[in-house]
Amino acid sequence: MSEPFKQIAELDRLVHDSSRLAILTALAACTSADFLYLASLTGLSKGNLSSHLSKLEAGGLITIEKRFLGKKPNTLVSLTPEGRTAIDKHWGELERLRQDSASWRQ
Questions:
Q1: In whole angstroms, what is the distance from residue 106 CA to residue 87 CA?
Q2: Residue 7 pLDDT > 90, yes or no?
Q3: pLDDT grade, residue 1 (50/70/90)?
């Protein structure tokens, strides 16, 4: 595999999945977000969002806090410091690859 494509293949798959990238990018723009807001923002179904959040939590990139607001259950999602580092690194790598792509032509 040529070098540029090897670099693309080596991107962190936990972060690079389009749904998880959207979730992490949204969380990077705020302190935390509740589950329903993330579902609305990303367009993911509740089940699909829950599945992606479980993977991100298992990877140590987010925390999930279940709480009650009055008598209503509420799920709050936040980036961990590792999650913030991962999303910043990922966008940096994508930008570097985009800039380097001009030299890929032969």
A1: 31
A2: no
A3: very low
Instruction: Report helix, strand or coil for 64.
Output: strand
pTM above 0.85, yes or no: yes
Tokens linked to 17: 């999945």
Residue 32's region, left for phi above 0, alpha for psi from -120 to 50, else beta, is beta
> Which residue type does 95 have?
E
CB 75 within 8 A of CB 35: yes
Domains of the chain from N-terminus onward: 14-100 (1.10.10.10)
* Exposure b/e, 88-103, CB count within 10 A at least 16 = b: eebeebeeeeeeeeee
Q: How far apart are CA 15 and CA 91, in angstroms?
A: 10
